[in-house]
Amino acid sequence: MSFSSNHVDIVIKHAGGPCNWEGSPGITSWDVEVLLRPDRSAKAVVATASLWRVDLQLCTDIVYELDNISGDLGEIASAISDSEDRLQEHSIVAGYNSSILIAEDVVVDRFWRGNRLGPALIFFAADMLRADGIFLTPVALGTRLDAAGVCFTDYDAPRPGPLAQKKVVNAWRKAGFRKLAGDVVWIRTCDGYPGDGPNHGELARKTMTKIENLSNEPRAQAWLKRRIRRQTGITPATPSGSCEGPPANLKRVRRRAP
Fold it and tell me: What is the pTM of this model?
């Protein structure tokens, strides 16, 4: 199995409304994946994210609607609602700049951590979905590999300690996120006008190009071979089932039953 050149794909899938309910206008769910493809028939998942896009012109009561989906989303919504005056100073949640993105569950395979891939994935999605701001609650949770070699959050695993939590918080801070209220952090995304700050969509594309270039190095080639073999069943799964390192993702919301 020899890969001479790899290609990074980003797949954004519309997952519908909240739990397929029809009574929450302006709220849609999205799943995002970063895939490394050595050819058309093979792929390895590098990172994943679950997102909520909220159009505040259609969703008239963000706290009520999101709290009906989960308590954790309700906490983020409350932080946004309580900080409305502050956000309006940044031209967010008012007028035409009223579409926001809430990052729910971001997981990066350990081999690729340290490249700011998590924030890049969210920035790319915000650019594609035309979101004016991103909100999330950083927290480290346990992760492991599934049968196909995809790293995912293991909610039954013990939560990592204070050092891991601090590392995750600092990673999002380095990406430009700032505290909003409580544990919620946020960032204003830019539409790229001159003098209007960094274009986060362009920064995300540069990160993806970096990942594509790194994927052709020997260690990355070995990682890719392991993931492809795991998918095809050529080699057995590792006994540990871990993502080859410590967790670094976000707080997963606990959805309430409709």
Answer: 0.80
